[in-house]
């Protein structure tokens, strides 16, 4: 019988020792030159020792002029390969695999970072946090080709540094999701219109990376089940993109959903959010999948694997609260993890800074893990707020994502 501790070998031959996958969490532990800090490296060492089979890094930006938030890591020709090697080494301790998540924010780059972000089309961000983003300008074809090259080069550097694989981030409202979405992508060229055209940048990035890294190096994809808006990327589109990527040879598909305008991926206590959609995916492809979002009990995780509802359990916030969750589960010490609703004590203020708290609390705890300090189990949001102000200054108070 397949259990959560049964290894799985991907198409390309990479074996992952168990069915736990740490989903990407933007650690915001890059230095002022967008390089990994010693804290970031220490964090991955701790996670690797905690028993998770696959660690997916927080989103790494492929262009230093297009960043999503403060503390991002950028991987380009100016990056110090030795620091990346240390990060990869930490993440491969204890027979662990580490995939680098590659991203470009597109228009989801706040005013505090981008005077004029780029996007498929000059469609401004909507939603209650829209004010925090400048209206983007549309990319030229030449710029699209340059971005494709940047993804390809970043993947090649990850491989050179000793990462076990890469994951292309095409979810959560960032650039590749913007191209997939008919709402965001209103161009009039071969990168727009039909689904084949809207996914062209993604397929070109995939084939570009594949040509550089060869067939033995795993390439994963994180994709939305849907954007959950009527004029966005639909479930039907998503299934077709997954099928196409499968035909092209993708090694692993991670399923999430929503964006920061409609954050379906980050509820609390609602169970695994995308498990029904995963069943539809499993009917059309045989490539292994990771379902991320909402797992919080041992029984829920074990059942999802035993019933073949997913091949990997994607965990983000739970692995912050319990960094050695897989080991604990193995020893019979883990039954469930509770994610807390944080509050400032004022409903009005919570409404204003809720999105910031939701991210900064986990960022604060990741730094604590790196420094060997205990996780804080609290519902009081003030510590997380002060943490962000200390690290980012007043710009922390401006939303960095559309809405969460
Ligand atoms: C602080 C924070 C940072 C995140 N950063 C990323 C990221 O860089 N890339 C990504 O694909 N998802 C990111 N996510 C989303 C998670 O990967 C995941 O999809 C979501 O938290 C739901 O999973 P969970 O219920 O296990 O936490 C982030 C979530 C949080 C809370």
UniProtKB/TrEMBL annotation:
It comes from the Bacteria. Keywords: Flavoprotein, Oxidoreductase. Residues 4-331 form the NADH:flavin oxidoreductase/NADH oxidase N-terminal domain. The keyword Transmembrane helix does not apply. The keyword Oxidoreductase applies. One of its GO terms (molecular function) is oxidoreductase activity. InterPro entries: Aldolase_TIM, NADH_flavin_oxidoreductase, OxRdtase_FMN_N. This is NADH:flavin oxidoreductase/NADH oxidase N-terminal domain-containing protein. It comes from Companilactobacillus paralimentarius DSM 13238 = JCM 10415.
């Amino acid at each position: 019988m397949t259990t959560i501790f049964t290894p799985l070998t991907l198409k390309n031959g990479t074996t992952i020792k168990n069915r736990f996958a740490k989903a990407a969490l933007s650690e915001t532990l890059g230095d002022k030159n967008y390089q990994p800090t010693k804290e970031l490296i220490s964090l991955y060492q701790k996670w690797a020792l905690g028993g998770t089979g696959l660690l997916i890094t927080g989103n790494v930006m492929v262009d230093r002029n297009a960043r999503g938030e403060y503390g991002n890591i950028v991987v380009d020709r100016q990056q110090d390969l030795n620091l990346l090697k240390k990060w990869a080494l930490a993440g491969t301790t204890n027979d662990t695999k580490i995939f680098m998540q590659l991203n470009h924010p597109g228009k989801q780059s706040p005013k505090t970072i981008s005077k004029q972000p780029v996007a498929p089309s000059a469609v401004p961000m909507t939603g209650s946090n829209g004010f925090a983003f400048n209206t983007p300008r549309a990319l030229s074809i030449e710029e699209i080709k340059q971005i494709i090259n940047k993804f390809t080069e970043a993947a090649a550097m990850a491989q050179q540094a000793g990462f076990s694989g890469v994951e292309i981030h095409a979810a959560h409202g960032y650039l590749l999701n913007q191209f997939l979405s008919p709402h965001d992508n209103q161009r009039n060229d071969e990168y727009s219109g039909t689904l084949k055209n809207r996914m062209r940048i993604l397929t070109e990035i995939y084939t570009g990376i594949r040509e550089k890294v060869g067939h033995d190096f795993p390439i994963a994809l994180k994709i939305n089940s849907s954007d959950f808006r009527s004029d966005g990327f639909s479930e039907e589109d998503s299934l077709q993109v997954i099928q196409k990527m499968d035909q092209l040879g993708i090694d692993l598909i991670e399923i999430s959903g929503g964006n920061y305008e409609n954050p379906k991926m980050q509820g609390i206590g609602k169970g695994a959010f995308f498990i029904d959609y995963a069943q539809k995916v499993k009917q059309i492809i045989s490539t292994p999948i990771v379902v991320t979002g909402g797992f919080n009990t041992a029984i829920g995780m074990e059942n999802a694997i035993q019933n073949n509802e997913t091949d990997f359990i994607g965990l983000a916030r739970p692995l912050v609260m319990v960094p050695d969750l897989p080991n604990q589960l193995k020893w019979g010490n883990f039954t469930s993890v509770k994610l807390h609703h944080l509050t400032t004590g004022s409903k009005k203020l919570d409404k204003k800074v809720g999105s910031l708290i939701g991210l900064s609390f986990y960022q604060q705890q990741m730094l604590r893990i790196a420094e060997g300090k205990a996780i804080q189990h609290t519902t009081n949001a003030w510590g997380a707020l002060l943490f962000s102000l200390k690290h980012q200054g007043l710009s922390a108070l401006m939303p960095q994502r559309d809405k969460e």
